[in-house]
């Protein structure tokens, strides 16, 4: 075999002896087990970077290369994102707001700027529409609403939930696309009532609302596209569980130095108190 492969016998037996003297890593089996547990807990959504951070937080100082090797050995791979098309209807005659936010997605404090949008989820009963409100400071979902109709009430309910839970001070900016729901009289009255400054993306420019578009992509990649919802109620319960039990409380965000939104807000609050 050595002759066929062009390898000298002495080198072959030297390699065999070196392999026999390598001491087994006592943590290796533990690492494989943790990789499988983290992958399962994240619903197989963590790639190498987040898996490495998760293992580091558990006390295992592994790098990217070893994490990649461990994931391969454990048979763990991340789910890939499918493409989705935009369905915003901005062809209406209602007034729109200027782009006050202007792609400034780096809020310095909580409840300084919210971004919102609507997406759709297919069920065996028909479409389910989801509206969300995200706080740019922590990327936390602070308001949401789901219904079988994509109307002004849907987005009003999502924002009302955010305002009720967070109780922001005067000066909050609310940014969305130019969809008819956000330009409706009902929604504009809600902004006026709570003294919220309205802001809207430029027509046909999804990058002006990139943060919420990114969340919808993540939601569909990590959860929706792997489900076959038999009813709207089943979809609502699953999405609610994803938002509250995973996305806000557990999922590591690279923008937040690989912390969850809840953890990031708690850490920033503690730093402010200490200062």
Explain what the structure shows:
With 275 residues, the protein is α/β, with parallel strands linked by helices. The chain has 2 domains: 1-72, no CATH class; 111-272, Nucleotidyltransferase, domain 5 (2-Layer Sandwich), CATH 3.30.420. It is built from 11 helices and 5 strands. The protein has helices spanning 2-5, 9-21, 28-41, 48-57, 64-74, 152-166, 180-183, 185-193, 210-222, 232-247, 261-274, and strands spanning 113-123, 126-135, 140-147, 173-176, 197-200. Strands 3-2-1-4-5 form a 5-stranded mixed sheet, sandwiched between helices. A hairpin with a 4-residue loop joins strand 2 and strand 3. Helix 3 (28-41) packs across helix 5 and helix 4 packs across helix 5 (64-74). It starts with a helix and ends with a helix.
Strand order of the largest sheet: 3-2-1-4-5
Using the coordinates shown, work out and report the CATH topology of the largest domain.
Nucleotidyltransferase, domain 5
Q: How many whole angstroms does the radius of gyration measure? A: 24 Å
Count of spatially separate domains = 2
Q: Mean of the pLDDT scores?
A: 86
Task: State the end-to-end CA separation.
Answer: 70 Å
Number of helices: 11
């Amino acid at each position: 075999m050595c002759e066929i492969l062009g390898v000298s016998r002495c080198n072959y037996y030297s390699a065999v002896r070196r392999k026999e003297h390598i001491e087994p890593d006592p943590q290796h089996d533990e690492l494989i087990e943790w990789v499988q547990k983290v992958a399962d807990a994240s619903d197989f959504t963590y790639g190498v970077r987040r898996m490495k951070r998760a293992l580091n937080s558990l006390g295992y100082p592994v790098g990217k290369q070893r994490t990649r090797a461990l994931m391969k050995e454990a048979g763990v791979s991340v789910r890939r994102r499918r493409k989705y098309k935009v369905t915003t209807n901005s062809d209406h005659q209602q007034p729109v707001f200027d782009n006050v936010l202007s792609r400034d997605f780096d809020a310095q404090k909580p409840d300084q700027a919210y971004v919102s949008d609507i997406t759709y989820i297919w069920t065996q009963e028909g479409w389910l529409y989801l509206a969300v409100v995200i706080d740019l400071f922590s990327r936390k979902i602070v308001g949401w609403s789901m219904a079988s109709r994509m109307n002004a009430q849907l987005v009003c309910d999502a924002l009302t939930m955010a305002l009720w839970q967070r109780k922001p001070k005067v000066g909050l900016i609310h940014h969305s696309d130019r969809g008819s729901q956000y330009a409706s009289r009902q929604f504009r009255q809600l902004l006026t009532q709570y003294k919220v400054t309205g802001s809207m993306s430029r027509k046909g420019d999804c990058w002006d609302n990139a943060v919420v578009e990114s969340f919808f992509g993540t939601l569909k990649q990590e959860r929706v596209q792997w489900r076959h919802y038999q009813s709207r109620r089943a979809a609502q319960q699953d999405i609610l569980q994803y938002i509250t039990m995973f996305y806000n409380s557990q999922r590591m965000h690279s923008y937040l130095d690989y912390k969850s939104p809840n953890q990031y807000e708690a850490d920033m609050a503690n730093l402010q108190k200490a200062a």
